[in-house]
Amino acid sequence: MAGLNVRFTDEELDALRERAEEEGRSMQSFAHDAVVAAINERSRRFDEAAAHVLGVSAELNRRLA
Fold this sequence. Notes:
The chain has 65 residues and is mostly helical. It has helices at 10-22, 27-56, 58-64.
């Protein structure tokens, strides 16, 4: 499994530690899940935007075909 080193400021690291502790999780697990959620959110927003564009342009595409 590949690894990744990420640098945080002292303040960011303290905030990460506090949030992970509040959830009863390790910092690594908390940070991993946050990154995966950010990746998934970006994909979801892209899919939503693409569906919107297809819906809005459907009539134009029909007339151009």
